[in-house]
Amino acid sequence: MVREGVMAKDDYLPLFETKSGKGLVSFRLFAASTFAAVCVIFVYRISHMPSSNKERWAWIGLFLSELWFAFYNVISVVLRWNPAYRNTFKHRLSLRYEKVLPGIDIFVCTADPTVEPPIMVINTVLSVMSYDYPPEKLSVYLSDDGGSDLTFYAMLEASRFANQWLPFCRKFKVVPRSPEAYFRTTPEPHDNNTIMAQKWTSIKKLYEDMKTRIESTTKTGRISEEIRKEHKGFLEWDFVSSRRDHQTILQILIDGRHAKAVDSEGQPLPSLVYLAREKRPQYHHNFKAGAMNALLRVSSRISNAPIILNVDCDMYSNDSESVRDALCFLLDEEKGREIAFVQFPQVFDNLTKNDVYSSSLRILSKVDLHGFDRYGGPCYIGSGCFHKRESLCGKKYNDKACQEDLMSNKLDIIKNEEDAQVLEGICKVLASCSYEENTQWGKEMGLKYGCPVEDILTGLSIHYRGWKSVYFNPERPGFLGVAPVTLLQSLVQFKRWSEGDFEVFLTHCPFLYGHNKISLGLQFSYCMYLLWAPTSLASLYYVTVPSLCLLRGISLFPQVLNPWVIPFVYVFFGNFAYSLVEFIHLGGTCTEWLNDTRMWVYRRTTSFLFGFCDNIIKLLGFSKSAFAITAKVVDEDVSERYEQELMEFGTTSPLFTILATLALLNAFVLVGGIKRLLILEDPNINLGQNPFNMQIILCGLLVFINLPLYQAFFLRKDKGRMPSSVTNRSIAFALAACLAALQY
Ligand SMILES: *[C@@H]1O[C@H](CO)[C@@H](O)[C@H](O)[C@H]1NC(C)=O
Ligand SMILES: CC(=O)N[C@H]1CO[C@H](CO)[C@@H](O)[C@@H]1O
């Protein structure tokens, strides 16, 4: 290994450090006391089993739900037992490795030019091209599964704009390096006469002009003759019959291996490659996993960097030093060898103040993933992740292998003088449909196929092969993405995740397959997510049956003055209080916490339920999903309501029908329950001894959390209100359920 000018003592200082979290003692005490209370609840459930048959079934059901919650709670306590927080020392990295930094291949994936506008895609591309890193060691690959010449055109524009943008970023230390975000967030320099101000104005104009050209082309949907003449690449689209049926299109827009590839100041440029892999109707394209695998092969022929960063096209880089952060882990002399990937959190750029759909995933990114990290394996979440090429390509971890592979020398070995066109020809074969036939791609190599959460499954498999991973959540977010802006989008996203996660549980269960391969703590941690889907059943039971039993006059909880009520109140309200305090401690607001709790109920009763059902249907041998639910593209009105934090309904969806039915059911029951409390009450029994108090409180809380829904049924007039067909249907379902409860 080449190490120039290194001080001997520095040789042994690690490139990163790991710390434990704060407040662990209070968390553990709380967890232990909750556990004790839950045990008392179980004693109550067993010792007070009602004698009448009907009541007993409701009781047993509730008991089973509580058993499940207790089990799930144990998982979450294991996950959070001792979170790990990481910190990097980038100056040590520079001191030791600046001259021999490894090459980085950056994969950006896009799938549809209407949902993912080309201007957004190239902003992401430009932000990663301008990393604070030797440009000749960076190569940026765009996979366009939309196979769109509009996206190609935008990339062509970006390759020209980069000539100016990269020197500008370098010179004035621009942050963030997505031009759109930069010009949106940075005020114009005051003093108009400085070089900076002049440059700023001229670059801004260049950017605005480019944006206008791209957007007007995108709007018309076709490339004009003039533009077509600008690059031979457009000729490829003469052979494209549709986005699902076309040859491989591969264009090296900037060939970083060439001396000619320099920016306006003569500095080298990163390579820039556009790829639309071959698509044929008779071949399954395997979505993003297929695209990533094609990129893996193509890049191995062009730049073959040992480290790969993968980002979604809506996730621009907000920190030009993220590459160096990641390398601090991967190049660390002591621990770096066993680390397969470094995962950054998903942070979103367009959240509203109170985050009405709870998209920020605050607890997940600020607590849970740190918990994973302690056990050596945060999961791979599909974007903002630095991988070692070898581990992603299926290699097993071998503690005797040499770290030197990662060093840059490899880059130069590649036949430098190979003509770009010849190279393109060779690479096209690698991205063809038939290339993967009878190979291990999608199975043992690359990303795994056939799972809605290919990322989680791929990460888990890497852990099974003996590698570790690291979660790095710096103060300044490394990547900023776009969160869903409608309720349906958010629920559908969670449906896909829970469905895929449960499928992973069924097919790659950590307790079975991970035995002796990953630590027990990590097996538990993974299950926190993999078991989202079945959690829906217990949740659904808890939000319906106690309410229906209230209507029917079956008591399921102790009276308020009975000492047995204490563990129930402690577990129930203690958990709420704890999560509220934790939420605020992590920088949230009260309203945000309320929104988060609401979304927690909504996801559990709809998304997870559908995810569960789809798995069962698959198990029964039907391959097609029973619920074809898709979320629509967003229009202007929708964005406006999103900014006002109004929940967006506006379309019919089975998910909404369930939400609405549950909300109405609890509203009806609450009315009935209060009537029972006031009118039917025996005057000799005081309120505290009413056996239905707890059920009324539960029902009341559910009604409270559902307030935005009632508003959407009856009060709102805008287009985002609940469609009346859904309202009517749900009223019918809720009434039917109430009648059935009264009848039987
Ligand atoms: C992006 O990074 C900048 C610093 O470069 C920081 O000030 C800003 O808060 C970050 N954006 C978000 C949304 O966190
Ligand atoms: C607050 C905010 O920035 N909202 C934006 C988030 O992103 C969506 C989709 O790009 C926009 O429609 C919102 O206006």
Question: How would you briefly describe this protein structure?
Answer:
The protein is an alpha/beta fold. It contains 26 helices and 13 strands. One 2-acetamido-2-deoxy-beta-D-glucopyranose binds at residues 175-176, 318, 349, 476-477, 480.
Describe, in plain words, how this protein is organized in 3D:
- The chain is α/β, with parallel strands linked by helices and 744 residues long.
- The protein folds into 2 domains: 107-346 and 381-483, no CATH class; 521-743, no CATH class.
- Helix content is 52%, strand content 8%.
- It contains 26 helices and 13 strands.
- The chain has helices spanning 24-47, 53-80, 90-97, 118-129, 149-172, 179-185, 195-220, 225-228, 287-302, 322-330, 362-374, 389-392, 410-413, 420-430, 454-464, 487-508, 510-513, 520-530, 532-552, 565-585, 590-619, 636-643, 654-678, 693-705, 707-715, 724-743, and strands at 16-20, 84-88, 104-110, 138-144, 249-254, 271-276, 307-312, 316-317, 339-343, 347-348, 385-388, 468-471, 479-481.
- The strands form 3 sheets. The protein has an 8-stranded mixed beta sheet with strand order 5-6-4-3-7-11-9-12, with helices on both faces. Strands 8-13-10 form a 3-stranded mixed beta sheet. The chain has a two-stranded antiparallel sheet with strand order 1-2.
- Helix 4 (118-129) links the parallel strand 3 and strand 4.
- The protein starts with 15 loop residues before the first strand and ends with a helix.
- The relative contact order is 0.10.
- Bound molecules: 2-acetamido-2-deoxy-beta-D-glucopyranose (NAG) (2 copies).
- The site of one 2-acetamido-2-deoxy-beta-D-glucopyranose (NAG) has 8 residues, from helix 22.
- The active site is at residues 145, 455.
- One of its GO terms (biological process) is cell wall organization.
- Thought to be a Golgi-localized beta-glycan synthase that polymerize the backbones of noncellulosic polysaccharides (hemicelluloses) of plant cell wall.
- It is found in: Endomembrane system.
